[in-house]
Write a sequence for this structure.
């Protein structure tokens, strides 16, 4: 995901200006997926969110048949829920990297 999507998302850095937040979020992304090796979890979360998005149209098809309107709405709801779920799960991984970046910045300032 684009780190710009998480500007003002984390309370730890929300008081900073947008450019500084973006730099810190890029660092957090790097730490999360390179040093903490959370890219496998990210892939798992992506697959999980895709499966959740499929639940809505499959259930709708089984309950209501081939109604184009209802199935179209259920696909839309499934995609919306899937995007929300993926952002929430992805932000939890990014939070771990953000905690590491902030911890490292705090120790550098005290030295």
């Amino acid at each position: 995901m684009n780190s710009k999507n998480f500007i003002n998302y984390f309370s730890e850095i929300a008081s900073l200006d947008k450019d500084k937040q973006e730099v810190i979020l890029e660092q957090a992304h790097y730490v999360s997926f390179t040093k903490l090796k959370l890219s496998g979890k990210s892939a798992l979360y992506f697959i999980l969110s895709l499966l959740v998005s499929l639940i809505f149209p499959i259930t709708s098809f089984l309950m209501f048949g081939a109604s184009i309107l209802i199935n179209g709405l259920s696909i839309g709801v499934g995609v919306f829920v899937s995007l929300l779920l993926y952002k929430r799960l992805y932000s939890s991984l990014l939070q771990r990297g953000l905690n590491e970046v902030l911890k490292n910045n705090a120790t550098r300032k005290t030295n």
